[in-house]
Amino acid sequence: MFLLSKIIAKEWFKALIGSIVVLFLLITVGDILNGFLRNYSLNRVLIEYVLKLPDFMGKMLPMTSLLASLFAFNKLKSKSELMAILAAGYSAKKIYGLILGCSLLLGAFQFVNLGYLVPFANKVKRNQFEKSRKNESKYLARSQIGKSGLIWYKSGNYFTSFKAFDVKNNALKDVLVYFLNEDKKLDSIYRAQTAKYIAKKRWKLEGISIVQSLSQKNFPEFVDTRQVFIELNETPEDFNQFKSDITTLGFFDLGQFISRLKETEINSAEYEVMYYEKVSLALICILFALFPVASIFNPNRRAAGFGKSVVFTLIFSIFFWLIHSTSISMGSSGKIPALVATLAIPTLFLVYIAYIYNKNRRL
């Protein structure tokens, strides 16, 4: 039985690697040509391509998983090996279990890729290629998301940290502004629940506590008030760019950031979808690998043509991505819970695969 398992697994991984290579070649040609058309140097084109590889891989793996099962079992059927394997007592249950094991390895790699490799590549890409000269002159330090879940940046004579930016209301949540004096020493600290943009660098801080005269020899002054108006160099457009920092967080760091974000009044649905989708896409790799396995119930190569299987599989994948993308969009907008948006459709299709398996096993 080990030999039969080895034959099936070998064909599956050969088809998987072949599918990855072909899709990578297609993507590589298009991406590199696009870089040259934008008049980038060869060095930048290659570096950007390498940094895009994890993201490309995340999008490709579900389809390569589907193609691996489709081509592997078609090859076994075309040589009548599948019929011989089943005749030797290797049950459909064992075949499903074997493909499940193979796809679990692929799903684990997909999770590591989306949860850690993609954020790392985004971080490098953001530091190296997303710095415009305008921003470099304006910010002495790029924004960073610390372990506390706060976003930090430096501009002019002050440091600022905030928990989140409310795009709808043009407001920062849980804000700390550290003002420096002319000698670059800490002079005052403004802590506010909300900082709302008014106009022309003017911001209204609400629910505020102020610590003043920190650079003086006398004891600091403490002031609590409902609201204060201050000037910050930033506009809402500047804070919108910090949203890309979220994509640089690893899986568990992103989860911690979302849990802190929920403490504010901002809707975190979009970030929750981003978080759960990393698990969802790993599950989809397993789902797509198992779907074509149903062809083993027609082991005779004349029972069903390969072209028919390809067309059916193509229709399945288009239908799946259509309704899954719709579900993701609804989750991001907060119309349905993030868990439902990311996992409901894959779970329903897994139930369908289980149904097909039980139905054919009884025949």
Task: Record keyword descriptors for this entry.
elongated; eight-stranded antiparallel β-sheet; 10 helices; lipopolysaccharide transport protein A fold; 363 residues
Polypeptide structure, described:
- By secondary structure, this protein is α+β, with helices and mostly antiparallel strands.
- It folds into two domains: 2-130 and 264-362, no CATH class; 157-232, Lipopolysaccharide (LPS) transport protein A like domain (lipopolysaccharide transport protein A fold, Sandwich), CATH 2.60.450.10.
- Helix content is 59%, strand content 18%.
- It contains ten helices and eight strands.
- Strands 1, 2, 3, 4, 5, 6, 7 and 8 form an eight-stranded antiparallel β-sheet that branches.
- α8 (269-290) runs parallel beside α10 (338-362).
- It is elongated.
- The protein starts with a helix and ends with a helix.
